[in-house]
Specification:
single chain; 94 residues; mainly alpha; 38% helix
């Protein structure tokens, strides 16, 4: 998406991970640095806020996954944005 990013992340069993706000800080900071460097620019890139949600059940996961996968197409960006490198899915079973 040209104006935002969707991430659907799952926690590994028995692994203590940083809270979502820490993940977002790392993702936004690192990507802003690389994007600004690539575009030969500086300054703020991302909005301060982010919207996060914990998945409640299998149905919520499926709805969130399909929304994320189909969002570029619904925005009129075409099917090529639902494929790598724009879309990546890593399942637990390989």
């Amino acid at each position: 998406m040209p104006t935002h990013v969707h991430l659907l992340v799952s926690k590994l069993a028995n692994v203590e991970l940083p809270q979502v706000d820490k993940w977002m800080q790392l993702i936004k900071g690192g990507s802003a640095y690389l994007i600004n460097k690539t575009l030969n620019r500086s300054g703020k890139l991302w909005a301060v806020e982010s919207y996060d949600r914990y998945i409640r059940n299998e149905k919520h996961y499926r709805n969130s996954f399909y929304y994320t996968v189909n969002n570029p197409q619904m925005a009129g960006l075409g099917r090529q944005f639902t494929q790598k490198p724009f879309m990546y899915r890593c399942d637990q079973d390989g």
